[in-house]
Amino acid sequence: MPGFQIHPEAEPPSPPVILSSTVNNSPKSSLASPATMPNSIKFIPPQLDRLAGTSTEASRENPILLLIRDAGVLISMLRYLPSLFLPFRTGNKHAELFPSPRGVRDMLLQSWLFCAELMLLLLVPMAYLVLPGFVILSGAAVTCLVIYVVSWPMQGPRIVYSQMDDATIKSAKEHENERWLFINGCMVGQRGLQQNVNRLAKTFGRPVIGIHNQTYGLIADLVECIIQRSLGFNTMDVRVAYDYIKACLLDPTVTKIVLVAHSQGGIIASMVMDGLFADLPADIISKLEVYTFGNAASHFNNPRLIGTPKSSPLSTTDDFCVGHIEHYVNERDMIPRWGVLYNVMQILDNRFSGRIFVRMGASGHMFNQHYLDAMFPLDRASASVFLDQVVDVDEKLALRRESKAIQQISAMRRESIKQLPTGEALDWGDKDRIPVDVIINGETPSGGDNVLINFVDSQTGSDARAKTVRQLSRLWKYVDGGNP
Q1: pLDDT tens per residue across span 337-385
Q2: Which stretches within 346-441 are classed as H helix?
Q3: For the whole model, what pTM was predicted?
Q4: Which of 72, 86, 74 is nearest to 341 (CA)?
Q5: Among 104, 106, 221, 299, fewest CB within 10 Å belongs to which?
Q6: Which pLDDT does position 458 carry in this prediction?
Q7: Interatomic CA distance for residues 236 and 240, integer angstroms
Q8: How far apart, in Å, do the first and last CA atoms of the chain sit?
Protein backbone atom coordinates (compact mmCIF):
# COMPACT_ATOMS: atom_id res chain seq x y z
CA MET A 1 0.00 0.00 0.00
CA PRO A 2 1.56 3.33 -1.00
CA GLY A 3 2.58 5.47 1.92
CA PHE A 4 3.03 2.62 4.42
CA GLN A 5 6.34 0.92 5.11
CA ILE A 6 5.54 -2.18 7.15
CA HIS A 7 8.46 -3.40 9.29
CA PRO A 8 8.65 -7.20 9.06
CA GLU A 9 9.76 -7.57 12.66
CA ALA A 10 6.75 -5.58 13.91
CA GLU A 11 4.07 -7.00 11.64
CA PRO A 12 1.42 -9.10 13.39
CA PRO A 13 -0.35 -11.96 11.63
CA SER A 14 -2.68 -10.88 8.88
CA PRO A 15 -6.26 -10.54 10.12
CA PRO A 16 -8.74 -13.16 8.99
CA VAL A 17 -11.30 -11.72 6.62
CA ILE A 18 -14.47 -13.75 6.22
CA LEU A 19 -16.48 -12.72 3.21
CA SER A 20 -19.91 -13.62 1.99
CA SER A 21 -19.91 -16.40 -0.59
CA THR A 22 -21.38 -13.98 -3.09
CA VAL A 23 -18.36 -11.70 -3.18
CA ASN A 24 -16.81 -11.33 -6.61
CA ASN A 25 -13.04 -11.61 -6.15
CA SER A 26 -12.21 -10.78 -9.75
CA PRO A 27 -10.11 -7.63 -10.24
CA LYS A 28 -12.74 -5.84 -12.26
CA SER A 29 -16.48 -5.37 -12.04
CA SER A 30 -18.19 -5.13 -15.39
CA LEU A 31 -20.63 -2.33 -16.06
CA ALA A 32 -22.65 -4.18 -18.64
CA SER A 33 -23.39 -7.86 -19.12
CA PRO A 34 -25.51 -9.86 -21.56
CA ALA A 35 -28.08 -10.23 -18.81
CA THR A 36 -28.41 -6.48 -18.42
CA MET A 37 -31.03 -4.98 -20.68
CA PRO A 38 -30.32 -1.55 -22.23
CA ASN A 39 -31.60 1.28 -20.05
CA SER A 40 -32.08 -0.98 -17.06
CA ILE A 41 -30.85 0.70 -13.88
CA LYS A 42 -27.80 -0.49 -11.99
CA PHE A 43 -27.68 0.70 -8.40
CA ILE A 44 -24.33 0.99 -6.65
CA PRO A 45 -24.92 1.29 -2.88
CA PRO A 46 -23.24 4.10 -0.97
CA GLN A 47 -19.78 3.56 0.44
CA LEU A 48 -20.14 3.45 4.23
CA ASP A 49 -16.54 2.74 5.29
CA ARG A 50 -17.44 3.16 8.94
CA LEU A 51 -13.83 3.03 10.13
CA ALA A 52 -12.56 5.53 7.51
CA GLY A 53 -10.13 3.10 5.91
CA THR A 54 -10.39 4.64 2.45
CA SER A 55 -8.93 7.96 1.34
CA THR A 56 -8.56 10.03 -1.78
CA GLU A 57 -5.73 9.09 -4.11
CA ALA A 58 -4.40 12.64 -3.90
CA SER A 59 -3.50 11.96 -0.27
CA ARG A 60 -1.51 8.83 -1.15
CA GLU A 61 -0.10 9.15 -4.64
CA ASN A 62 2.35 11.38 -6.50
CA PRO A 63 0.28 14.10 -8.23
CA ILE A 64 2.37 13.96 -11.41
CA LEU A 65 1.83 10.20 -11.66
CA LEU A 66 -1.88 10.76 -11.04
CA LEU A 67 -1.95 13.31 -13.85
CA ILE A 68 -0.26 10.89 -16.25
CA ARG A 69 -2.60 8.06 -15.29
CA ASP A 70 -5.66 10.32 -15.56
CA ALA A 71 -4.63 11.34 -19.07
CA GLY A 72 -4.00 7.72 -20.04
CA VAL A 73 -7.38 6.53 -18.75
CA LEU A 74 -9.11 9.40 -20.56
CA ILE A 75 -7.37 8.48 -23.83
CA SER A 76 -8.52 4.88 -23.38
CA MET A 77 -12.11 6.18 -23.18
CA LEU A 78 -11.97 8.10 -26.49
CA ARG A 79 -13.96 5.41 -28.27
CA TYR A 80 -16.96 6.76 -26.35
CA LEU A 81 -16.38 10.32 -27.61
CA PRO A 82 -19.24 10.25 -30.19
CA SER A 83 -21.58 9.04 -27.44
CA LEU A 84 -21.31 12.45 -25.76
CA PHE A 85 -23.72 13.81 -28.39
CA LEU A 86 -25.95 10.79 -29.05
CA PRO A 87 -28.86 10.74 -29.51
CA PHE A 88 -28.28 13.97 -31.42
CA ARG A 89 -31.69 14.84 -32.85
CA THR A 90 -34.24 16.52 -30.63
CA GLY A 91 -37.44 18.46 -31.00
CA ASN A 92 -37.11 20.12 -27.61
CA LYS A 93 -36.18 23.76 -28.12
CA HIS A 94 -34.66 23.88 -24.63
CA ALA A 95 -32.22 21.02 -25.40
CA GLU A 96 -28.54 21.80 -25.91
CA LEU A 97 -28.41 20.36 -29.44
CA PHE A 98 -31.60 21.98 -30.72
CA PRO A 99 -30.70 23.97 -33.88
CA SER A 100 -31.70 27.43 -32.69
CA PRO A 101 -29.65 30.37 -34.06
CA ARG A 102 -27.59 30.77 -30.88
CA GLY A 103 -27.38 27.01 -30.51
CA VAL A 104 -25.94 26.62 -34.00
CA ARG A 105 -23.50 29.46 -33.30
CA ASP A 106 -22.25 27.75 -30.13
CA MET A 107 -21.92 24.39 -31.90
CA LEU A 108 -19.87 26.00 -34.69
CA LEU A 109 -17.63 27.75 -32.16
CA GLN A 110 -17.15 24.53 -30.22
CA SER A 111 -16.30 22.67 -33.43
CA TRP A 112 -13.71 25.30 -34.38
CA LEU A 113 -12.18 25.23 -30.90
CA PHE A 114 -11.96 21.43 -30.97
CA CYS A 115 -10.12 21.46 -34.31
CA ALA A 116 -7.75 24.25 -33.23
CA GLU A 117 -6.91 22.57 -29.92
CA LEU A 118 -6.44 19.20 -31.59
CA MET A 119 -4.03 20.74 -34.10
CA LEU A 120 -2.14 22.37 -31.23
CA LEU A 121 -1.79 19.04 -29.42
CA LEU A 122 -0.58 17.28 -32.56
CA LEU A 123 1.76 19.95 -33.91
CA VAL A 124 3.60 21.02 -30.75
CA PRO A 125 5.40 17.67 -30.24
CA MET A 126 6.45 17.59 -33.90
CA ALA A 127 7.49 21.26 -33.89
CA TYR A 128 9.64 20.58 -30.82
CA LEU A 129 11.88 18.38 -32.99
CA VAL A 130 12.60 20.98 -35.68
CA LEU A 131 11.91 24.49 -34.33
CA PRO A 132 13.60 26.61 -31.65
CA GLY A 133 11.90 26.69 -28.27
CA PHE A 134 10.94 30.38 -28.39
CA VAL A 135 9.17 29.82 -31.74
CA ILE A 136 7.14 26.95 -30.28
CA LEU A 137 6.21 28.93 -27.18
CA SER A 138 5.28 31.99 -29.22
CA GLY A 139 3.09 29.94 -31.56
CA ALA A 140 1.38 28.16 -28.65
CA ALA A 141 0.76 31.49 -26.88
CA VAL A 142 -0.79 33.03 -30.00
CA THR A 143 -3.00 29.96 -30.49
CA CYS A 144 -4.18 30.12 -26.86
CA LEU A 145 -4.98 33.81 -27.29
CA VAL A 146 -7.01 33.08 -30.42
CA ILE A 147 -8.87 30.30 -28.54
CA TYR A 148 -9.68 32.75 -25.75
CA VAL A 149 -11.01 35.33 -28.22
CA VAL A 150 -13.09 32.79 -30.18
CA SER A 151 -14.68 31.43 -26.99
CA TRP A 152 -15.52 34.93 -25.70
CA PRO A 153 -19.04 35.08 -27.27
CA MET A 154 -20.03 32.00 -25.22
CA GLN A 155 -18.96 33.50 -21.90
CA GLY A 156 -21.12 35.55 -19.57
CA PRO A 157 -21.51 36.48 -15.91
CA ARG A 158 -20.21 34.08 -13.30
CA ILE A 159 -23.60 33.98 -11.56
CA VAL A 160 -26.81 33.32 -13.51
CA TYR A 161 -30.40 33.29 -12.19
CA SER A 162 -33.20 31.08 -13.44
CA GLN A 163 -36.13 32.54 -15.36
CA MET A 164 -39.43 31.20 -13.98
CA ASP A 165 -43.00 31.05 -15.18
CA ASP A 166 -45.95 31.92 -12.93
CA ALA A 167 -46.43 28.35 -11.67
CA THR A 168 -42.78 28.06 -10.66
CA ILE A 169 -42.86 31.47 -8.94
CA LYS A 170 -45.89 30.38 -6.91
CA SER A 171 -44.14 27.15 -5.89
CA ALA A 172 -40.90 28.98 -5.08
CA LYS A 173 -42.63 31.17 -2.48
CA GLU A 174 -43.19 28.05 -0.39
CA HIS A 175 -39.44 27.38 -0.23
CA GLU A 176 -37.93 30.75 0.58
CA ASN A 177 -35.61 29.21 3.17
CA GLU A 178 -33.92 27.01 0.53
CA ARG A 179 -31.13 27.77 -1.93
CA TRP A 180 -30.73 25.70 -5.07
CA LEU A 181 -27.37 26.01 -6.82
CA PHE A 182 -26.12 24.52 -10.08
CA ILE A 183 -22.57 24.12 -11.45
CA ASN A 184 -22.38 23.29 -15.16
CA GLY A 185 -19.92 21.01 -16.91
CA CYS A 186 -17.80 20.91 -20.05
CA MET A 187 -18.73 22.73 -23.27
CA VAL A 188 -21.40 24.93 -21.68
CA GLY A 189 -21.60 28.60 -22.55
CA GLN A 190 -23.77 31.27 -20.95
CA ARG A 191 -26.74 30.30 -23.14
CA GLY A 192 -26.44 26.65 -22.10
CA LEU A 193 -26.18 27.51 -18.41
CA GLN A 194 -29.31 29.68 -18.63
CA GLN A 195 -31.17 26.78 -20.25
CA ASN A 196 -29.96 24.43 -17.51
CA VAL A 197 -31.07 26.58 -14.56
CA ASN A 198 -34.39 27.36 -16.25
CA ARG A 199 -35.02 23.64 -16.71
CA LEU A 200 -34.09 22.84 -13.11
CA ALA A 201 -36.38 25.58 -11.81
CA LYS A 202 -39.31 24.28 -13.85
CA THR A 203 -38.66 20.67 -12.81
CA PHE A 204 -38.28 21.22 -9.07
CA GLY A 205 -40.34 24.36 -8.52
CA ARG A 206 -37.55 26.44 -7.00
CA PRO A 207 -35.42 29.34 -8.19
CA VAL A 208 -31.99 28.06 -9.19
CA ILE A 209 -28.71 29.99 -9.13
CA GLY A 210 -26.17 28.94 -11.75
CA ILE A 211 -22.42 29.19 -11.14
CA HIS A 212 -20.77 29.41 -14.55
CA ASN A 213 -17.89 27.06 -15.22
CA GLN A 214 -16.71 28.77 -18.40
CA THR A 215 -15.82 26.75 -21.49
CA TYR A 216 -12.85 27.06 -23.85
CA GLY A 217 -13.61 24.03 -26.00
CA LEU A 218 -13.85 20.32 -25.23
CA ILE A 219 -10.11 19.58 -25.22
CA ALA A 220 -9.24 22.62 -23.09
CA ASP A 221 -12.06 21.75 -20.68
CA LEU A 222 -10.79 18.16 -20.33
CA VAL A 223 -7.23 19.36 -19.74
CA GLU A 224 -8.56 21.61 -17.00
CA CYS A 225 -10.42 18.61 -15.52
CA ILE A 226 -7.18 16.62 -15.35
CA ILE A 227 -5.34 19.50 -13.66
CA GLN A 228 -8.14 20.00 -11.14
CA ARG A 229 -8.40 16.29 -10.33
CA SER A 230 -4.72 15.42 -10.15
CA LEU A 231 -3.10 18.61 -8.88
CA GLY A 232 -5.98 19.97 -6.79
CA PHE A 233 -5.72 23.32 -8.57
CA ASN A 234 -8.42 25.76 -7.48
CA THR A 235 -9.44 27.44 -10.71
CA MET A 236 -11.56 30.59 -10.78
CA ASP A 237 -14.69 28.42 -11.09
CA VAL A 238 -13.84 26.57 -7.86
CA ARG A 239 -13.11 29.80 -5.98
CA VAL A 240 -16.36 31.48 -7.08
CA ALA A 241 -18.40 28.37 -6.21
CA TYR A 242 -16.72 28.01 -2.81
CA ASP A 243 -17.39 31.62 -1.81
CA TYR A 244 -21.01 31.52 -2.94
CA ILE A 245 -21.87 28.16 -1.35
CA LYS A 246 -20.11 29.11 1.90
CA ALA A 247 -22.09 32.36 2.03
CA CYS A 248 -25.34 30.41 1.66
CA LEU A 249 -24.35 27.92 4.36
CA LEU A 250 -23.50 30.70 6.82
CA ASP A 251 -26.81 32.51 6.24
CA PRO A 252 -28.94 31.71 9.34
CA THR A 253 -32.16 32.26 7.39
CA VAL A 254 -31.27 29.42 5.01
CA THR A 255 -32.14 25.96 6.28
CA LYS A 256 -31.30 23.88 3.21
CA ILE A 257 -28.84 24.17 0.30
CA VAL A 258 -29.27 21.79 -2.63
CA LEU A 259 -26.24 21.64 -4.92
CA VAL A 260 -26.71 20.11 -8.38
CA ALA A 261 -23.61 19.55 -10.50
CA HIS A 262 -23.06 18.22 -14.01
CA SER A 263 -19.91 16.80 -15.61
CA GLN A 264 -16.88 18.95 -14.69
CA GLY A 265 -19.18 20.63 -12.19
CA GLY A 266 -18.85 17.40 -10.18
CA ILE A 267 -15.09 18.02 -9.86
CA ILE A 268 -15.74 21.59 -8.76
CA ALA A 269 -18.37 20.44 -6.26
CA SER A 270 -15.95 17.85 -4.85
CA MET A 271 -13.19 20.44 -4.40
CA VAL A 272 -15.61 22.93 -2.85
CA MET A 273 -16.82 20.30 -0.38
CA ASP A 274 -13.23 19.49 0.63
CA GLY A 275 -12.74 23.15 1.51
CA LEU A 276 -16.02 23.37 3.38
CA PHE A 277 -15.21 20.28 5.46
CA ALA A 278 -11.97 21.96 6.54
CA ASP A 279 -13.44 25.39 7.27
CA LEU A 280 -16.97 24.98 8.63
CA PRO A 281 -18.59 23.17 11.57
CA ALA A 282 -20.38 19.93 10.78
CA ASP A 283 -23.78 21.27 11.85
CA ILE A 284 -23.49 24.07 9.28
CA ILE A 285 -22.47 21.70 6.47
CA SER A 286 -25.36 19.38 7.36
CA LYS A 287 -27.70 21.85 5.60
CA LEU A 288 -26.15 20.77 2.28
CA GLU A 289 -27.44 18.11 -0.13
CA VAL A 290 -25.56 17.18 -3.33
CA TYR A 291 -26.85 15.60 -6.57
CA THR A 292 -24.64 15.07 -9.63
CA PHE A 293 -25.21 14.03 -13.25
CA GLY A 294 -22.45 12.62 -15.46
CA ASN A 295 -19.96 13.28 -12.66
CA ALA A 296 -16.30 13.69 -13.77
CA ALA A 297 -14.87 13.79 -10.22
CA SER A 298 -12.22 11.34 -9.01
CA HIS A 299 -13.32 11.46 -5.37
CA PHE A 300 -16.22 12.61 -3.22
CA ASN A 301 -15.50 13.07 0.47
CA ASN A 302 -18.13 13.01 3.20
CA PRO A 303 -16.77 12.62 6.75
CA ARG A 304 -18.77 10.96 9.51
CA LEU A 305 -20.29 13.19 12.16
CA ILE A 306 -19.26 10.90 15.03
CA GLY A 307 -16.75 8.12 15.53
CA THR A 308 -17.43 4.76 17.13
CA PRO A 309 -15.48 3.93 20.32
CA LYS A 310 -13.40 0.78 19.87
CA SER A 311 -14.90 -0.71 23.02
CA SER A 312 -18.45 -0.45 21.70
CA PRO A 313 -20.26 -2.38 18.97
CA LEU A 314 -20.20 -0.65 15.62
CA SER A 315 -23.01 1.85 15.26
CA THR A 316 -25.73 1.06 12.72
CA THR A 317 -26.59 4.72 12.14
CA ASP A 318 -24.79 6.25 9.20
CA ASP A 319 -24.56 9.92 10.06
CA PHE A 320 -22.39 11.89 7.67
CA CYS A 321 -21.74 15.62 7.37
CA VAL A 322 -23.74 15.75 4.13
CA GLY A 323 -26.87 13.73 4.67
CA HIS A 324 -27.77 13.07 1.03
CA ILE A 325 -25.48 12.55 -1.98
CA GLU A 326 -26.70 10.94 -5.21
CA HIS A 327 -25.04 10.45 -8.59
CA TYR A 328 -26.92 9.84 -11.86
CA VAL A 329 -25.02 8.37 -14.80
CA ASN A 330 -25.55 7.28 -18.41
CA GLU A 331 -23.41 4.17 -18.81
CA ARG A 332 -21.99 5.03 -22.24
CA ASP A 333 -21.25 8.66 -21.40
CA MET A 334 -17.46 9.05 -21.69
CA ILE A 335 -17.12 11.66 -18.94
CA PRO A 336 -18.54 9.69 -15.98
CA ARG A 337 -16.91 6.50 -17.26
CA TRP A 338 -13.64 8.34 -16.70
CA GLY A 339 -14.98 9.98 -13.55
CA VAL A 340 -17.35 8.41 -11.05
CA LEU A 341 -17.59 4.93 -12.61
CA TYR A 342 -13.85 4.37 -13.06
CA ASN A 343 -13.00 5.68 -9.60
CA VAL A 344 -15.71 3.64 -7.89
CA MET A 345 -15.36 0.37 -9.78
CA GLN A 346 -11.61 0.21 -10.39
CA ILE A 347 -10.04 2.18 -7.50
CA LEU A 348 -11.69 0.29 -4.65
CA ASP A 349 -9.72 1.99 -1.85
CA ASN A 350 -10.77 5.44 -3.09
CA ARG A 351 -13.22 7.57 -1.12
CA PHE A 352 -16.35 8.20 -3.21
CA SER A 353 -19.50 8.83 -1.20
CA GLY A 354 -23.09 8.68 -2.36
CA ARG A 355 -25.64 6.46 -4.07
CA ILE A 356 -25.10 5.84 -7.78
CA PHE A 357 -27.82 5.20 -10.38
CA VAL A 358 -26.54 4.00 -13.78
CA ARG A 359 -28.78 3.87 -16.88
CA MET A 360 -27.30 0.84 -18.57
CA GLY A 361 -26.75 1.13 -22.32
CA ALA A 362 -27.70 4.81 -22.32
CA SER A 363 -25.48 7.42 -23.98
CA GLY A 364 -25.35 11.20 -24.09
CA HIS A 365 -23.73 13.87 -21.91
CA MET A 366 -25.93 16.95 -22.39
CA PHE A 367 -27.58 17.92 -19.10
CA ASN A 368 -31.07 18.88 -20.31
CA GLN A 369 -31.27 16.63 -23.35
CA HIS A 370 -29.67 13.39 -22.15
CA TYR A 371 -30.10 13.49 -18.37
CA LEU A 372 -33.09 15.54 -17.22
CA ASP A 373 -35.28 14.69 -20.23
CA ALA A 374 -34.56 10.98 -19.67
CA MET A 375 -34.66 10.83 -15.87
CA PHE A 376 -36.87 13.74 -14.75
CA PRO A 377 -38.92 14.68 -17.84
CA LEU A 378 -41.42 17.54 -17.75
CA ASP A 379 -44.04 15.09 -19.00
CA ARG A 380 -44.66 13.39 -15.66
CA ALA A 381 -46.26 10.37 -17.32
CA SER A 382 -42.93 9.66 -19.05
CA ALA A 383 -41.06 9.84 -15.73
CA SER A 384 -42.18 6.30 -14.84
CA VAL A 385 -39.89 4.91 -17.55
CA PHE A 386 -36.95 5.73 -15.31
CA LEU A 387 -38.38 6.12 -11.82
CA ASP A 388 -40.48 2.95 -11.72
CA GLN A 389 -37.78 0.57 -12.90
CA VAL A 390 -36.60 -2.00 -10.38
CA VAL A 391 -32.89 -1.52 -9.84
CA ASP A 392 -30.20 -4.15 -10.29
CA VAL A 393 -28.16 -3.84 -7.08
CA ASP A 394 -24.42 -4.37 -7.49
CA GLU A 395 -23.96 -6.13 -4.14
CA LYS A 396 -20.66 -7.70 -5.19
CA LEU A 397 -19.08 -4.32 -5.84
CA ALA A 398 -20.43 -3.02 -2.52
CA LEU A 399 -18.83 -5.90 -0.62
CA ARG A 400 -15.53 -5.50 -2.46
CA ARG A 401 -15.40 -1.78 -1.61
CA GLU A 402 -16.10 -2.37 2.07
CA SER A 403 -13.65 -5.28 2.35
CA LYS A 404 -10.97 -3.14 0.66
CA ALA A 405 -11.54 -0.48 3.29
CA ILE A 406 -10.96 -3.11 5.99
CA GLN A 407 -7.70 -4.16 4.32
CA GLN A 408 -6.58 -0.54 4.41
CA ILE A 409 -7.43 -0.33 8.12
CA SER A 410 -5.44 -3.50 8.80
CA ALA A 411 -2.37 -2.10 7.04
CA MET A 412 -2.61 1.19 8.90
CA ARG A 413 -3.00 -0.51 12.26
CA ARG A 414 0.01 -2.73 11.72
CA GLU A 415 1.97 0.42 10.93
CA SER A 416 0.73 2.20 14.05
CA ILE A 417 1.99 -0.48 16.49
CA LYS A 418 4.44 1.10 18.91
CA GLN A 419 8.13 0.22 18.57
CA LEU A 420 10.80 -0.21 21.24
CA PRO A 421 14.17 1.53 20.66
CA THR A 422 15.53 -1.84 19.50
CA GLY A 423 12.91 -2.01 16.76
CA GLU A 424 10.99 -4.76 18.54
CA ALA A 425 7.20 -4.47 18.51
CA LEU A 426 5.69 -3.43 21.82
CA ASP A 427 2.97 -5.78 23.07
CA TRP A 428 0.09 -3.66 24.35
CA GLY A 429 -1.89 -6.55 25.72
CA ASP A 430 -5.49 -7.54 25.05
CA LYS A 431 -6.94 -4.57 26.92
CA ASP A 432 -5.63 -2.06 24.42
CA ARG A 433 -5.40 -4.29 21.39
CA ILE A 434 -6.54 -2.63 18.21
CA PRO A 435 -9.37 -4.67 16.62
CA VAL A 436 -8.29 -6.26 13.36
CA ASP A 437 -10.40 -9.42 12.99
CA VAL A 438 -13.11 -8.89 10.44
CA ILE A 439 -16.27 -10.75 9.59
CA ILE A 440 -18.77 -9.78 6.92
CA ASN A 441 -22.32 -11.16 6.86
CA GLY A 442 -21.50 -14.12 9.06
CA GLU A 443 -21.46 -15.45 12.59
CA THR A 444 -19.15 -13.86 15.14
CA PRO A 445 -16.65 -16.55 16.26
CA SER A 446 -16.50 -17.16 19.98
CA GLY A 447 -13.39 -17.35 22.10
CA GLY A 448 -11.44 -14.68 20.22
CA ASP A 449 -9.44 -12.04 22.05
CA ASN A 450 -9.94 -9.28 19.50
CA VAL A 451 -12.95 -7.06 19.08
CA LEU A 452 -14.73 -8.11 15.89
CA ILE A 453 -16.14 -5.75 13.29
CA ASN A 454 -19.49 -7.06 12.09
CA PHE A 455 -20.76 -5.60 8.83
CA VAL A 456 -24.53 -5.65 8.70
CA ASP A 457 -26.40 -6.78 5.62
CA SER A 458 -27.32 -3.23 4.57
CA GLN A 459 -23.72 -2.57 3.62
CA THR A 460 -24.00 -4.89 0.65
CA GLY A 461 -27.08 -3.09 -0.62
CA SER A 462 -29.42 -5.99 0.04
CA ASP A 463 -31.94 -3.56 1.52
CA ALA A 464 -32.29 -2.11 -1.99
CA ARG A 465 -33.30 -5.42 -3.58
CA ALA A 466 -36.55 -5.34 -5.57
CA LYS A 467 -36.88 -1.58 -5.06
CA THR A 468 -37.44 0.99 -7.77
CA VAL A 469 -35.51 4.16 -8.48
CA ARG A 470 -38.46 6.08 -7.07
CA GLN A 471 -38.11 4.26 -3.74
CA LEU A 472 -34.35 4.84 -3.50
CA SER A 473 -33.94 8.31 -4.98
CA ARG A 474 -34.38 11.40 -2.83
CA LEU A 475 -34.04 13.94 -5.63
CA TRP A 476 -37.27 12.96 -7.39
CA LYS A 477 -39.23 13.87 -4.22
CA TYR A 478 -38.43 17.52 -4.92
CA VAL A 479 -40.16 17.43 -8.33
CA ASP A 480 -42.98 19.98 -8.77
CA GLY A 481 -42.12 21.72 -5.51
CA GLY A 482 -42.25 18.58 -3.40
CA ASN A 483 -40.49 18.31 -0.07
CA PRO A 484 -39.02 15.00 1.19
Answers
A1: 999 999 999 998 899 999 999 999 999 999 999 999 999 998 877 777 8
A2: 373-375, 384-387, 395-415
A3: 0.83
A4: 74
A5: 104
A6: 44
A7: 6
A8: 42
